[in-house]
């Protein structure tokens, strides 16, 4: 999602989700 992209920054959304978990 857009929030995941912002959280992960330049990293792909998958990595953003892992950090979010």
TrEMBL record:
Location of the region described as Disordered in the Swiss-Prot/TrEMBL record: 1-21
Name of this protein: Leucine-rich repeat-containing N-terminal plant-type domain-containing protein
Lineage of the species this protein comes from: Eukaryota, Viridiplantae, Streptophyta, Embryophyta, Tracheophyta
